[in-house]
Design a protein that fits this description.
The protein is 51% helix and 0% strand. The chain contains five helices and no strands. It has helices spanning 4-18, 23-30, 34-41, 49-59, 63-85.
């Protein structure tokens, strides 16, 4: 059985580790006890939406980004579970992003634009 709280905890832990931050730093910033955050990361506790919001703020990650990553993990887990049961499940299709052209942005020096998106979903080409 796939447990959403475990997938969510795994993604939160990876986000924290990517930033090189400790549980203590994030728990302090999110104003949640270290023990409780640890239990959330290990999938032992269900995090409320308020707690998730505080953790996302502490990690400087949008909740939608967190949920997108959890959704991707859930899709993979469902496929693996389905393959083990030999009951095929259709592979989810990722939307294709259209090209975006930026000629200038008010208040931004020429040629200096930052785009935050999953690395596998975006190709940035300098003109």
């Amino acid at each position: 059985m796939i447990l959403l709280r475990r997938l969510l905890g795994d993604v939160l832990r990876r986000q924290r580790q990517r930033q090189g931050r400790t549980l203590r730093e994030v728990s302090s910033s999110a104003r949640v006890s270290l023990g409780y955050l640890s239990e959330v990361e290990r999938g032992q506790k269900e995090a409320s939406s308020e707690l998730l919001s505080a953790i996302c703020d502490a990690l400087d990650v949008r909740m939608s980004e967190l949920m997108r990553e959890v959704s991707d993990e859930l899709s993979l887990a469902e496929l693996a579970e389905s393959a083990a049961a030999s009951d095929p499940v259709p592979v989810p299709v990722r939307p294709v992003l259209n090209s975006v052209s930026v000629s200038s942005v008010a208040g931004v020096p020429s040629g200096r634009v930052t785009i935050k998106a999953p690395a596998e979903a975006v190709d940035v080409v300098a003109a």
